[in-house]
Amino acid sequence: RACALLGPAIKPTIVSRAFALCPYCQLRNGQIYGDGQGGQFCQCADCGPIALRADDRAAVMLDEQWLRSRLRMALEIESRDGVTDIADGVWRLGDARREPVLLARSLIRLWAEPSIFDRVRVAGAGIRVIAPQSERVRGSPFASGIDWLPLEERFSFYGGRISFIPDPARHRAEEPAPTDPTTPVFGPFSADFRWVTLPDWPHGPIRCTEGQAAIFEALWFFKGVEVDGERIMQRAGQSSDKPMDLFKVKTQYKGKPEHEGPLFAYRALVRSRRREGLYAMPCAAAASGSA
Q: Are residues 18 and 57 in the same domain?
């Protein structure tokens, strides 16, 4: 199933020619021996000799060339700018809006050799760094002028393609503060996502709780891309299992607009595939496409 979902992002590989995970217990690695009849078996410490089939040794790995090419497409890097290997585990993907873009396997590599930035620095332009998150990082890991794009947060993989997710905080800082806190700024949402204005709701702007606003903001962040519910809840800082949990109306509040409003907004704006656990906000995609 994982291979079907990841598609072209992965390619076959061999983990080890001498050892294999026991096909029976799936717990221990055992040494591989020939059975004298053209086949092989795994000598598991717990299970003993277990015959190996061809797919028992099958493994996959990330296709890094595919990843680099799709990241370039996501950032709209000109095709004439080739990928340059500038250090072990660090590549220059090209220039996005005249800013050099680096891809690194880890932030530690760049911390250990900051002179890497001097090789790509352009006068009057910043540098963008794509790298996975690190438990050792708190806040911005680089000096001013170097923008870190956490791979897990700023890019989304769906349908065989990678999409770039802009930082809504940066766009929000550029927006003039409205005098009316209910004024729509992000699609139907106010600047702080606490108010929702919908033409089909007859009771005026819908006021949301902090938790409901956090859910809407998290969904807006992903630009209409279908995202796992757990990832949405983590970004919203909520402990519930599903986004819908924060919009349920208790029996004693049913029929009251101030409680029914957020649920109405959720049903109108959020598309879900509950069986797969995927959620999306289509209006966020439309807004990002027209921006």
A: yes
CA-wise closest residue to 206 among 219, 194, 214 = 194
Cα separation, 232 vs 274, whole angstroms:
14
Structure tokens at 74: 């996501």
Whole-number Cα distances in Å, 90 to 4, 101, 203, 247 = 29, 11, 55, 44
Query: Rounded CA gap, 51 and 22, in Å?
Result: 9
The answer to whether residues 282 and 205 belong to one domain is yes
The whole domain housing 143 covers 64-164
pLDDT for res 193: 94
**Global pTM?**
0.50
Q: Distance from first CA to last CA of the chain, Å, rounded?
A: 36
- If the chain, 291 residues long, is cut into consecutive pieces of 10 residues, what is the mean pLDDT of each piece? 58 76 85 91 92 79 84 81 86 88 89 87 88 75 85 81 75 57 90 93 93 94 89 89 92 92 96 91 74 49
Q: What is the DSSP letter of 189?
A: B
Residues 185 and 96 in one domain: no
Q: Which residue has tokens 């009316």?
A: 180
Task: Locate 183 and state its tokens.
Answer: 């004024």
Q: Report the domain count for the chain.
A: 3
- Together in a domain, 36 and 109: no
Last residue of a domain, one of 105, 133, 164: 164
Q: Which domain-ending residue is among 108, 137, 164? A: 164
Residues 83 and 56 in one domain: no
Q: Is 2 exposed, middle or buried, given 0-12, 13-18 or 19+ CB atoms closer than 10 A?
A: exposed
Classify strands 59-62 and 10-13 as parallel, antiparallel or unpaired: antiparallel
Asked whether 230 and 243 are in contact (CB, 8 A), the reply is no
